[in-house]
């Protein structure tokens, strides 16, 4: 007959734990605590590995440029410094569950080409994915409109209509939608396009989903280009306007003359009126 000590030693060897040196007796309570600690450590490692896999998948589905991070951003002008400050406040607010459930929020980035609008929007998205596992989707509006236009070709053999319906549903469901190049090279969108975009924004508003819109227009031009119905949809959000007026960050471009030094107040919700 095996005594209790022999049974414990045998169990320890079966679980890959060497017996204590000098065959020192280990009571059941101590042994159980050791195994629980080992099991908890293994569970923690599995959870961390699973979280990394989830975050990697979220980054992959977002279509974000991997270089759009705060680490790669040069804060070389007042407008970028101000935008980064607002961006970090927006990210930090996600730690408050009440804020996340209170309503829908929209950041409106506007300014000329190459000012860093898309980069900062992407940096926000990357950090939200890493910290809070927020689902993000980055899309250029012109690409969506092309897909929408071709979805009406009922003779097409590439199932474009079904692809657009799936894409449209994804636009509705994702936690943070980034729409870039809004109304690029467009003086005014067609009426049915204005309605589609306005409805998209209103449905996201009802479902408490956040948006970032990026445009090269100023606000007056953007209101005209989007049309009143669509622009009113934007005004329903808690809106934050962020104007980019500094120098272009793109290499090889000729610097433009300095713009008038407007004093832009600190951004507050519902600035779009």
Layout of secondary structure:
Layout: H1 4-14, H2 28-62, H3 78-93, H4 97-102, E1 105-111, H5 117-132, E2 136-140, H6 141-150, H7 160-173, E3 176-180, H8 191-206, E4 210-215, H9 219-226, H10 228-235, E5 238-244
Parallel strand pairs: 1-4, 1-5, 2-3, 3-4
Helix pairs in contact: 3-5, 7-8, 8-10, 9-10
Characterize the structure shown.
The chain has 273 residues and is of the alpha/beta class. The chain has two domains: 4-51, no CATH class; 63-244, P-loop containing nucleotide triphosphate hydrolases (Rossmann fold, 3-Layer(aba) Sandwich), CATH 3.40.50.300. The protein is 51% helix and 11% strand. Helix 8 (191-206) links the parallel strand 3 (176-180) and strand 4. The longest helix is centred in the first third of the chain and has 35 residues, at 28-62. Residues 64-218 form the Chromosomal replication initiator protein DnaA ATPAse domain. InterPro entries: DnaA_dom (IPR013317), P-loop_NTPase (IPR027417). Residues 261-273 have a biased composition (Polar residues).
